[in-house]
Structure formats: C-alpha cells, structure tokens
Amino acid sequence: MSHVITQEIQYTAGDRTAMEAAARELGGAVIDKKTYEWYGQSVGGYPIPTGMTAEQIGRCEFAIKFPGIRYEVGICKRADGAYVLGFDFYGSDGRHDGLKLKEKVGDNLNKLRQAFSKHKTLLALRRQGFTVRQAQQTDGKIRITALPRHQ
After folding, report:
1. What's the Cα-to-Cα distance from 89 to each of 20, 45, 132, rounded to whole Å?
2. Long-range contacts of 110-114 (CB under 8 A, 24+ apart)
3. pLDDT digits over 2-40, tens only?
C-alpha cells in the first residue's frame, strides 16, 4: 500500500462544523464522499495502519480536498468506533501528491489536528455563551481566552 498513515482524533459526528472550519483555515474544503484519494493500491513494504485492513484504506465518512492536490485526507471511522484522519504521504520524489498534502496538513497531520481542536474548542465555548478571543503565540501555540458575555 502506498504510505498511508492514520492519526486518532477526538471526533464525534457532531464535530463536522469544526472540521469544516479547520479545512477552510488551511485552504481546503470538506467534501461529501465515501473514499479519499490516495495512491490507490497496496504495494507492500509499509505497514497497514493499526485497526484497519488493506481493504479499508481509502474509505471514509467524508474527505478534505485541497486545490491543486490530487491526494486527500479522509475522516475515517474504524471498526472499533474511533475516528482517525487518514492520508497518503508518499510523494517526496515529486511524482505523487503526498508531499504537497503533507505541507498543507503537517507531519502526522499536526496542522490539521491543531486547527480542528481549536475550532472545536471555539464552537463549544460559544455554545456555552462565552465571548472568545484567540491569539497565535510566537511558539506556534494558540491562546484562547473565554470571557462571560455581559447580560
């Protein structure tokens, strides 16, 4: 199989709005489809992600697409019910889109996971009635301040 990895996320079916916001922040968009684009076949030599079979690679609940990049990120539900982000990072030689996708979402999907966590937190705080502010720190971390709304 090409070079597909997965990263667990704290995702539930109600978190789609946060994932859509995270995708937009990174320049992508959520698209409704049941498969995500990757190399497309198992060629061996790279381990199958934990909790998945070779036949499950590429299947998803929905995908994230970035302009000009064929490969996509899949939001996948494993048999055990956990959600994972899946993507094919193969392409350091420039012949495939894995490197381009990795530049957008980060090593081990860290940029996407951070953006998703931020938007999930912002939405939850706003639903609870807080006014929220966010600021990017010099170390790349995001500081979120929640203030009670005045009555």
Report:
1. 21, 14, 35
2. 111/26, 112/22, 112/23, 112/26, 112/64, 112/73, 112/85, 113/7, 113/9, 113/85, 114/142
3. 577 677 788 887 899 999 999 999 999 999 999 999 988
Greatest CA separation for the chain: 61
pTM of the full predicted structure? Answer: 0.87
Q: Which of 68, 60, 71 is nearest to 9 (CA)?
A: 60
CA distance 118 to 101: 20
HEC string of 73-107? EEEEECCCCCEEEEEECCCCCCCCCHHHHHHHHCH
Place of tokens 């990757």: 38
**Residue 24 burial by Cβ neighbours in a 10 Å radius (0-12, 13-18, 19+):** middle
pLDDT, tens only, 50-87:
777 778 889 999 999 999 999 999 999 888 888 999 88
State the sign of the Cα–Cα–Cα–Cα dihedral 103, 28, 60, 83.
positive
Angle at 35 between CA 114 and CA 84, to 5 degrees: 35
